[in-house]
Automatic annotation (TrEMBL):
<comment type="similarity">
    <text>Belongs to the glycosyl hydrolase 65 family.</text>
</comment>
<dbReference type="Pfam" id="PF03636">
    <property type="entry name" value="Glyco_hydro_65N"/>
</dbReference>
<protein>
    <submittedName>
        <fullName>Glycoside hydrolase family 65 protein</fullName>
    </submittedName>
</protein>
<keyword id="KW-0328">Glycosyltransferase</keyword>
<dbReference type="Pfam" id="PF03633">
    <property type="entry name" value="Glyco_hydro_65C"/>
</dbReference>
<keyword id="KW-0378">Hydrolase</keyword>
<dbReference type="InterPro" id="IPR005195">
    <property type="entry name" value="Glyco_hydro_65_M"/>
</dbReference>
<dbReference type="InterPro" id="IPR012341">
    <property type="entry name" value="6hp_glycosidase-like_sf"/>
</dbReference>
<dbReference type="InterPro" id="IPR005194">
    <property type="entry name" value="Glyco_hydro_65_C"/>
</dbReference>
<dbReference type="InterPro" id="IPR017045">
    <property type="entry name" value="Malt_Pase/Glycosyl_Hdrlase"/>
</dbReference>
<keyword id="KW-0326">Glycosidase</keyword>
<feature type="domain" description="Glycoside hydrolase family 65 C-terminal">
    <location>
        <begin position="734"/>
        <end position="795"/>
    </location>
</feature>
<feature type="domain" description="Glycoside hydrolase family 65 central catalytic">
    <location>
        <begin position="329"/>
        <end position="724"/>
    </location>
</feature>
<dbReference type="InterPro" id="IPR008928">
    <property type="entry name" value="6-hairpin_glycosidase_sf"/>
</dbReference>
<dbReference type="GO" id="GO:0016787">
    <property type="term" value="F:hydrolase activity"/>
</dbReference>
<dbReference type="InterPro" id="IPR011013">
    <property type="entry name" value="Gal_mutarotase_sf_dom"/>
</dbReference>
<dbReference type="Pfam" id="PF03632">
    <property type="entry name" value="Glyco_hydro_65m"/>
</dbReference>
Length: 812
């Protein structure tokens, strides 16, 4: 169905434009551009933004009497501007520039076509001052090339429906951009670009170059403008030459073109973007000019762009019927625009908000935990590159650990260009206007997320070249950090991790405590124990020479491993009232009047801001921002979770786990999009009646902007990718271990039919088709060997070119 691949936005609604811009962003893993209007060079309704993956700059600001330093993903010069108006005639001055906000606008429709990777904008104007009400229609197609990652293009076609005259056109490169896309950051310095230079080359090429102020990344754009109209015979295109106007920070092509019914005017803008961070580039300006002057015409570019997308869709395949399927495809589109095969050649991590806006400054958090699981089974080379981003920053993480009197690697909660801790030290509560201390750097569980990703990547790919070298080194250094952070409590005869912050950011200290952090966060402790156990397992299988070489290089002695073994079996997990405690003392905190707060405020997702504005704090209450203990049920399938607890000497049976799920379900405000996802996943696996409610929340968090306007500042990449994985692994129960694809379906009635194509250990096109009561497994004929599947106590080797239909227990 064609509509399954398109998202349509009708009319011009100033309050919604920025949200649409995020959702209509086009990108290719190297760079992305928000779906902003080309006619407006700014203003409150629009926020043009172009971001190159990994292009950061650091600036100092002064807020609340303090000096703060922030590193931001930089908003680069805007390549979009293209504006138009009806040119003056002998008896009439030129019209105003025509924009979607203009009163002469009759119609506005934006269509995001996921299959083709294009954004088409259709606008229709009239001149109300003229008695004959002439009409001008404009169709504009935009692409950010998926095959040639440094190219973008814009084709604009103007049709005079019932008048003749001329159009004035201006196509520009605009270097006046700043980072101003997030209201909360407005008091911070956003002027990242300097040394702007503009120029023109030959009759049809403009150039603009600049550099980030402190990181010194040089950026260059070049734009080729091609315009023509059809001649009087309606067929012969006649090229129209532009002339260049160069400003200090802008470069424009200007042209005036006659137009008449049956003689449309077409303007193509082909743009190239390079930075000095690019591989295989001598000078970015020279590279951009070279690229733009060798780029083919628009029609050919569109063809090769669509072909590149077709190849991507084939590898990414995940087909779900109905509206959930349409949303999932949009999520997949944005994941692939942020992290594509082009990413594999770059030194970049997973930006939590995509390349779609400036929230969280383009930083890299633990959110990659929700992203790599999907990529592992489609684009493993991209997963590997993202893990290599972490590997290159391992020395910095080791130094951070040493500075904190720990051993091993302490990865930062927020990472940017060089891997230092980028978490802010102050954050603004927009409700109270107060700047508050930020202790999120105590979320050391980010290290376990990296280790978890390495382990799962290894299971999905059997990539021993990575696992026995960089993967092992990171695993061992993260395990070493945990071993050095563990405090032995002789009274409890257990190891404890104290002074941390768990995934639930509402608890960063005990009420009234002078120091930040809480003790024995169950998620942190259990995942730390898991990391230690997996590191030992990996150390065990490392072949002799690489093992010796690695141990020697990182100074790891064999007897350290004995200590890890002990810790991995005796980490403490607190319990209260028959459930796992989120941390020591959680059960003693006050109960919140949830109904009262809901009644008073309606949306209480950001309860932390509400309470702080009232002079209170979430630290006093049994109130969690997002899934914390329940994250364990997201990371570990039931058997593995039970085994993890068993190894620690705790009996966590089904009843205790269910009681734990219910307990936190009643005490969570879901102030992060990750929360709905994790709850949906955990409840779906437990076949809980409320599962769909949370899955739906995760599915709609960006398209319906559920977190109160935050999608306009960038999409939530973790939740988007997580919903793909919810189908891929959550509903199928898919696990990749022991050379086997293990299945344990728990389909939701609302998501009971879907198709997946996986790439597993170098084998492409492995198919899983789920229907109510039935699962069809297929292995393409092109495969070299059979693939082993298991479900419960049944197992099959499915040969190349064959299928296996598996009946599922009733209700599945
Ligand atoms: O990593 C998340 C965190 O869990 C909740 N706050 C936002 C971060 C970035 O997405």
């Amino acid at each position: 169905m064609p509509e399954d691949w398109t998202w349509e936005y009708e009319g011009w609604h100033p309050a919604e434009e920025r949200l649409r811009e995020s959702l209509c962003t086009l990108g290719n893993g190297y760079f992305a551009t928000r779906g902003a209007a080309t006619e407006v060079f700014g203003g409150p309704a629009h926020y043009p933004g172009t971001y190159v993956a990994g292009c950061y700059n650091r600036l100092v600001s002064h807020v609340a009497g303090r000096r703060v330093e922030n590193e931001d993903l930089v908003n680069l010069p805007n390549w979009l501007p293209l504006r138009y108006r009806v040119a003056e005639t002998e008896d009439r001055p030129a019209s105003a520039w025509l924009t979607p906000a203009n009163r002469s606008l009759l119609g506005y429709r934006q269509t995001l076509d996921l299959r083709r990777g294009t954004l088409t904008r259709r606008l229709r104007f009239t001149d109300r001052h003229r008695a004959d009400h002439p009409h001008l229609s404009v169709e504009q197609v935009r692409l950010v090339h998926m095959g040639s990652p440094h190219l973008a293009a814009l084709r604009t076609t103007f049709t005079a429906e019932d008048w003749s005259g001329s159009l004035d056109l201006e196509a520009a490169l605009d270097g006046r951009t700043t980072n101003a896309g997030v209201e909360r950051y407005r008091q911070l310095n956003g002027h990242h670009l300097g040394r702007v230079r503009t120029g023109a080359e030959g009759p049809d090429i403009l150039r603009l170059s600049c550099a980030t102020r402190t990181s010194g990344v040089r950026i260059a754009l070049a734009a080729r403008t091609e315009a023509w109209q059809t001649a009087g015979d309606g067929e012969t295109p006649v090229a129209v030459a532009p002339w260049a106007r160069l400003g200090e920070r802008t470069a424009s092509h200007l042209l005036t073109v006659p137009i008449a019914p049956g003689q449309p005017v077409v303007v193509d803008k082909i743009v190239a973007l390079h930075t000095s961070r690019d591989p295989a580039v001598s000078d970015p300006e020279e590279a951009a000019l070279y690229e733009v002057s060798h780029a083919p015409a628009f029609a050919e570019l569109l063809g090769s762009h669509e072909a590149a997308w077709e190849r991507m869709w084939r590898r990414a395949e995940l087909d779900v019927s109905g509206e959930p399927g349409r949303i999932l495809r949009l999520h997949l589109f944005h994941v692939l625009q942020t992290l594509s095969p082009h990413t594999a050649g770059l030194d970049v991590g997973v930006p939590a908000r995509g390349l779609h806006g400036e929230a969280y400054r383009g930083h890299v958090f633990w959110d990659e935990l929700f992203v790599l699981q999907y990529l592992n089974l489609h684009f493993p080379e991209v997963s590997r590159a993202l893990l290599d981003y972490r590997y290159r920053r391992l020395p910095r993480a080791c130094r951070a650990a040493r500075q904190a009197d720990r051993a091993g690697a302490m990865y930062p909660w927020q990472s940017g260009s060089d891997g230092r801790e980028e978490a802010q030290t102050l954050h603004l509560n927009p409700r109270s206007g107060r700047w508050l201390p930020d202790h999120s750097h105590l979320q050391h569980h980010v290290g376990s997320a990296i280790a978890y990703n390495i382990w799962r990547y290894g299971q999905a790919t059997a990539d021993t070249e990575f696992m026995y070298t960089r993967g092992a080194e990171m695993m061992l250094q993260i395990a070493r950090f945990w071993a050095s952070a563990a405090e032995y409590d002789p009274a409890m005869r257990r190891y404890r991790f104290r002074g941390v912050v768990g995934p639930d950011e509402y608890h960063d200290a005990y009420p009234g405590a002078p120091e930040p952090g809480v003790d024995d966060n169950a998620y942190t402790n259990v995942t730390a124990a898991w990391v230690l156990a997996r590191a030992l397992e990996l150390a065990e299988v490392l072949p002799g020479p690489p093992r010796r070489e690695l141990f020697e290089r990182i100074g790891l002695a064999e007897d350290e491993l004995a200590g890890w073994e002990d810790i991995s079996r005796r980490v403490r997990v607190p319990f209260h009232a028959g459930v796992i405690s989120q941390f020591e003392g959680y059960g003693e905190l006050a109960e919140l009047d949830w109904d009262g707060y809901r009644e008073r405020y309606g949306d209480i997702r950001r309860l932390d801001r509400i309470l702080e504005a009232e002079g209170d704090t979430t630290n006093r209450y049994q109130a969690s921002k997002q899934a914390d203990v329940l994250m364990l049920g997201y990371l570990f399938p039931p058997a593995e979770l039970a085994a993890v607890f068993q190894r620690l000497g705790y009996a966590v049976d089904d009843a205790l786990w269910r009681a734990t799920v219910d307990y936190y379900l009643r005490r969570t405000s879901h102030g992060s999009t990750l929360s709905g996802l994790v709850h949906g996943w955990v409840l779906a696996r437990a076949r809980h009646a409320d599962a769909w409610k949370y899955c739906l929340e995760a599915l709609t968090s960006d398209v319906a902007d559920l977190q109160g306007g935050t999608t306009a500042e960038g999409i939530h990449l973790g939740a988007m990718a997580g919903t793909l994985d919810l189908v891929q692994r959550g509903l199928t129960g898919l696990e990749t271990r022991d050379d086997t694809l293990w299945l344990d379906p728990a389909p939701l009635p609302e998501l009971s039919e879907f198709d997946l194509t996986l790439r597993y250990r170098g084998q492409w096109g492995i198919g899983l088709r789920m229907k109510p009561g039935q699962l069809l497994i297929s292995v393409p004929v092109s495969n070299e060997a059979p693939v082993r599947f298991a479900l419960g106590d049944r197992a099959w080797n499915v040969a190349p070119g064959s299928e296996r239909v598996v009946a599922l227990p009733t209700g599945e």
